């Protein structure tokens, strides 16, 4: 027999621009910047393993493989930040991560996996941590694994987060753009966050700080997109497929060349930018559709990460697997 | 012809306990404490008045009465904090506030009206303010009118907010209990927030600080309820009808008197407490139903206040009025 199970949903997060702020304390380290949380996200299910021996005995309800307690879209996976979160909460559990988002493409899937694990593991093991504590634990795990700097705090908040100050709750500070938008995206492949963050980030950080100043002076979606494009150019991060798509969206949304693009409202062709860090282009409104691409479509997500309402063991008969 | 319109939804908020922290600067003033945001909330629709003369000329689409630009559940109303928010954003508009929540009963309707007005007025008049700025404007209006100290920041956050430090964004600090629950409530009448806040709040604040310490040490829903009950007794705020209901819920949820009450999960009789400040009892789970009351039923709300997705003038044909 297995134990309690809980599922958390964590929105995806595309970063529009950022500056890196390393620190010895992973709760203090992080990034400034801004991005969009997405209704396309990650479901993380944590199930405590109360009686590992029952697995070996072939209990019909037990599908966990003790040697592969983490799965990603059904396949055994190694996700360091997830293992670190379980260790920090002292929880022995299997973790199933499910997402329709592309991996390694700038959607914050690793941060979502860590944060969802923290929320669901705290619930199933009744650890009694507060939301700020759980966000801090996930942020620290993500920073220490080098897989991200600002996704976790943004995903905990939801909406269109602006990261004013880096770090976990108690250190960082957030604001947001009061807007919602239809979002389209196309991914052309992976880009290593670790490799970029391990390189010289001085130019990147200068460009990120400049973009943040611009957005703070005018916290609107079109300014977020413009600032993101300027950031990608100044930080020299633009990849050819993404640059081509951004130009195609511009041509489609502003055929008369008068410089006015859409604002991302429904049915409004909007401008496009590159997800940091991924070979991914995202657009407001119908920007990519209008330009002839076949994008995935979602919306900004109004809420932060949260436990789903059937997260308790009385519902364990409804398991997907 | 009238102008753009936008609608914001703001969750209701019952305060479980609080301490009052007045200050000369209304952005710094506020309260510490904790409570629950509710899926029962307030819809605030703001519609700019572009051409007041069209009203007099009998334009069929114009239903605004220029002499009563604020309505509450369809009736002309005077809500000082709403007028102050419009003034702060320099927006000329009619504001329609609609809610199923009882008024003056401890659900934060006045704070919700102010916060919803800020979000919707910023959208229709394209004021370009950030979310933190809009929350600050609504918080200041509520504090200056003496109608509340902590509802606005809690309603902007959603979930089960813990107010660690008083004040608007940039001054205050929030955490949360990572939980959701079915909530039941019964209201026996109004209680004046202004009168309590204008009185001697020393005992109240000492009791509130003690309750907060207790909850921070154990951020779980049952502890929130226990701390709320202890607070009501120590601050001498309990009214007879509410005290009677709380006792009835205790008897129903713990018939064997063993001291273990429910935790608020679905179908679980849970303990009850008094909403601060109102003649209102609220319970987790099915506490009030089990005790024979006929309560209103809702849930904790996972998200903070937000603009609804049809908030733009292309949808103005779908008006309710």
From TrEMBL, chains A, B:
Pathway: Cofactor biosynthesis; coenzyme A biosynthesis. Belongs to the GHMP kinase family. PoK subfamily. Residues 248-272 are annotated as: Disordered. GO terms for molecular function: ATP binding; kinase activity. Keywords: ATP-binding, Coenzyme A biosynthesis, Kinase, Nucleotide-binding, Transferase. Residues 259-270 have a biased composition (Gly residues). One of its GO terms (biological process) is coenzyme A biosynthetic process. Its EC number is 2.7.1.169. Pfam families: GHMP_kinases_N. It comes from Halorubrum halodurans. This is Pantoate kinase. It catalyses: (R)-pantoate + ATP = (R)-4-phosphopantoate + ADP + H(+). InterPro entries: GHMP_kinase_N_dom, PoK, Ribosomal_Su5_D2-typ_SF, Ribsml_uS5_D2-typ_fold_subgr.
